[in-house]
Write a structure and sequence with these properties.
Layout (H helix, E strand, L loop, with lengths): L2 H9 L3 H23 L2 H17 L10 H17 L2 H18 L5 H18 L3 H12 L4 H8 L3 H22 L1 H8 L1
Helix pairs in contact: 1-2, 2-3, 2-4, 2-7, 3-4, 4-8, 7-9, 8-9, 9-10
């Protein structure tokens, strides 16, 4: 079944169609929320709220467009609203750092190296400003196309490309200065 067909059926009250839509998009929407909030429980809440809001607004969705950018936009907005509460955000950030510091356990060398590289890259990305992080998350972590990323952040595709280029240049500089071992690992 096509996504447009499922949307049309869901608009008519077909619960099975809406369930199919949720199943198709649940993981990427959760991942986006997690990448933006760094907390699994909050990410689950935001993902669930995103689907509730999407269902409530389904009649306004243009079914000629892909659904994922629209759902991503809702998720980003909800995550931004959540982050605005500084006290909660700081508590999440503290928990994230505690989890990260406990995440590495002794293991075979290859697994250890991969874990270290992932954490270092994650930390490097987290040093970027929020708009740089969002554009990188959407394009590379969620693997949205340039057009889908543009729809999700409500900017032109050309702007996505330029922002992504600048964000990656800033990330490259952060890695060169603060995480040079990441580069050395790839040169060996």
């Amino acid at each position: 079944m096509s996504e447009a067909y499922l949307v049309e059926q869901a608009r008519r009250g077909d619960e099975a169609a809406w369930t199919a839509i949720i199943q198709q998009h649940q993981e990427p929407i959760f991942r986006l929320a997690y990448l933006l909030l760094s907390d699994g429980d909050d990410a689950k809440d935001i993902a669930q709220e995103a689907f509730i809001r999407a269902f409530q607004s389904l009649d306004r969705f243009d079914q000629n467009r892909p659904l994922r950018p629209w759902l991503s936009r809702i998720t980003i907005n909800l995550a931004r609203n959540r982050r605005r509460s500084l006290g909660r955000y700081m508590a999440h950030l503290t928990r994230w750092f505690q989890q990260e510091s406990n995440a590495v356990e002794p293991s075979p060398q290859e697994v250890h190296l991969q874990v270290w590289q992932s954490q270092a890259l994650w930390q490097a990305i987290r040093t970027l400003n929020r708009s740089d992080q969002e554009i990188i998350y959407l394009r590379y972590f969620l693997e949205l196309s340039v057009t889908e990323t543009a729809e999700a952040v409500e900017i032109a595709p050309g702007t996505v490309k330029s922002r992504l280029h600048r964000a990656l240049n800033r990330l490259r500089m952060v890695i060169e200065i603060d995480f040079p071992a990441l580069i050395e690992e790839h040169l060996e």
